[in-house]
Every structure is written in C-alpha cells, then in structure tokens.
Amino acid sequence: MTPSKPDSPNFAANVGLAIRLRIYVDEWLATGVKEDGSERPFQRNLGCTPQALLAVTTYMERYPATVDLTLDSYELSVYLAEVDALPSPSGNPYYDIALDATRLFVGAMASDWRWHLCKCRHCGRYFLHPKPRQSLPKGNLLLPAASEPHDRSETHEGQTVAR
Length: 163
Description:
Elements: H1 11-30, H2 50-62, E1 66-70, E2 75-79, H3 93-110, E3 117-119, E4 126-128, E5 161-162
Antiparallel strand pairs: 1-2, 3-4, 4-5
C-alpha cells in the first residue's frame, strides 16, 4: 500500500484498508502472548481470532485457492489471495476495502513469513523479525532493534517496517 496524502482521493480508502488489516493482524499477534506476558510467535493461532477467522473463512469460501500442475516441471502450484480472483469494485467502498484487507491478511497467513511478523510495543510499527525465537520473556518480542529511537533507547533494526 502506497502512502497517500490526506487531500488525495485514495486517502480514506488507504486508511480504511490499514485499519481493517491492523484489526486482523493485532488480533492474531495477541494469540501468541501468554498470561505471564511472555510471547510465543510460533503458537499464534488463527482459530482463536473471532474477527479474523470469520473474515478468512468467508473469503476462502467465496474465493477458494486454485491448484495448477506445471507441465514442464510437474510441480503443483497453489494460488491464494490473488488480486485477479476478486470481483470488480462493488460500488460500496467499505465492502471493497474490507475485502481487499481480508485478501491481504489471507495472503500473509498463507506465507512463510507470517511467523516473522511483529509489532513494536512502543511505536506501533509492524516489522518482519529476521530470526524469531520460539519463546520470549515478558516484553521482549514486538520490540525491534535499530532505526528509530524509543523512550527506553530501543531502536529499529533495518527490518522491513510498515506503519
């Protein structure tokens, strides 16, 4: 998603898409946080996310994955959350934005990097952690390490960061 200026025609759509996507991602990230405050990224569970799970299952029913056999290499390819699979805009911007946010979330959940997805507790930025650990003590994950200072002198590393 390309950032847009408040006076651009796509600004409201981009904000709406970001809000919806953050709802799903934050709900999913929270499933890896245990009662003692420790975090287990590899135990995040889409089945424990009421809003995200409903959105994903509804999306998958309407736009199921396709599987193709590549004849020259005899490999199976699975296509999921493709832009081409979506219908043309409905005329209801709220519906279209929610559908696109769900498509992006489904794509993220189907990707290998989903376990690397983190959110900084101090600034709220999302980033991809290069080497997530199985378990982190209370307060350690969701804190990246080097590009923007925080109140407690933590900084973001050169990870991929998105607001």
